[in-house]
Fold Adenosine deaminase.
Amino acid sequence: MTTPLNLEMIQRAPKALLHDHLDGGLRPATVIDIAGKTGYDDLPATEVDELTKWFQTSSHSGSLERYLEPFSHTVAVMQTPDALHRVAFECVEDLAADSVVYAEVRFAPELHINRGLSFDEVTDAVLAGFADGEKAAAAEGRAITVRCLVTAMRHAALSREIAELAIRFRDKGVVGFDIAGAEAGYPPTRHLDAFEYMRNHNARFTIHAGEAFGLPSIHEAIAFCGADRLGHGVRIVDDIDVEPDGRVRLGRLASILRDKRIPFEMCPSSNVQTGAVDSIASHPFDLLARARFRVTINTDNRLMSDTTMSREMQRLVEAFGYGWSDLERFTINAMKSAFIPFDERLAIIDEVIKPRFAVLIG
């Protein structure tokens, strides 16, 4: 096509989102409001514009560990059922407004028990917020399906409990399990009992791997832990060589990931912020897409990265010249990789995503 896609055009496209952290997507006004109601007085700013700028500036740190520090403030205001419900509800509103039709949003229950809530109470509040948000979005003509992943922090020792939580709530909106947090020094194999528990219950899980750490993290996630998807996985580029003539040669790890169609939950903007890549233009997304890996586009943390699905798509379009057919392929990649049943995935692909892209493509 001769006219490059712009943000306004991309906002009309249906989107599927697999990697979005609930505590990384709050509205700054909500953070300030809940802090005032709950007596949390450690915010670095109490004006919306100032707090927004602070989150985005602090997150652009060049390391994953420093990138995670601002989350202490969002987590601090997510300690009551009302706050958790509100944040989850607003998350659905914001995603639906960006034409997201399917989303898996993750959060770590162990971070929200500082005021005495149990894991079950935390999860109940979040799922109720998602459900109410879906109803409100549908009433406005913006149908969206939102499901939940429960996350265990890789530096802690609660992963088995969180895996058990995922199974208790598997028919109530939780579709999978995840581990997250600083990678260096905390390999995924520390949590083998949790992954074994998930496999024994025929359940799905993803693992943050290959973001701040290299190929061993990815290898362990797949070979020893049996991950269904990879959170980020950008360091797989270390197992790929590009010849002077443009031919791509894959190492054995990269080859098996492509052969097995392991989905990559790629989050370009946050990868720049954490220093995993230098820029969007140097992100391995395009290399992997051209080599036919199953790549997907994701937001990671919408507040910290000042982003939406539309903005992530726009940044990739500007860097690599993608058109509607490319964005459709990446969206279908994501929907194929979702943790809901096959017939539900197929219905969204055939009845929502393809028809809406057909209109856009013309």
